[in-house]
Amino acid sequence: MTKPAPLAPEALDEWLVALAEELGLDPADVPVATLLDVARDVAHNVARPAAPLSTFLVGLAAARNGGSRDDIAAACASATELALSWTPEKL
User: Which of 20, 46, 47, 59 is close enough to 27 for a disulfide, judged by CB 3.0 to 4.6 Å?
Assistant: First the structure.
């Protein structure tokens, strides 16, 4: 089985614009690089499936705290800090 080709950056941008508009959001308000950094840190330090769930929680927390760029940045910083220090408890 062949590995799929990586997604071109333009395709990611196109998807972001389409989804943001579909959801009634301004694509300019989405800090793509910061969210991808959170996803990377969570995937590498916690678990891969935790990455999309974590970015969802970051967005939800930011929205509940006002939804500004600063609110998004604060939620991303909290998630990254937790992911980078994550040491799961042994059962």
Answer: 20
Q: What's the rounded Cα separation, in Å, for the pair 20 and 1?
A: 33
How many structural domains does the chain have? 1
In a domain, 33, yes or no: yes
Residue 45's contacts (CB-CB under 8 Å, 6 or more residues apart) are: 83, 84, 86
Would residue 21 count as lying in a domain? no
pLDDT (tens digit per residue) in 18-41: 999 999 999 999 999 999 999 999
Question: In which domain, by residue range, is 73 found?
Answer: 26-84
Is the predicted pLDDT of residue 4 greater than 80, yes or no?
no
Neighbours of 41 (CB within 10 A): 20
Would residue 13 count as lying in a domain?
A: no
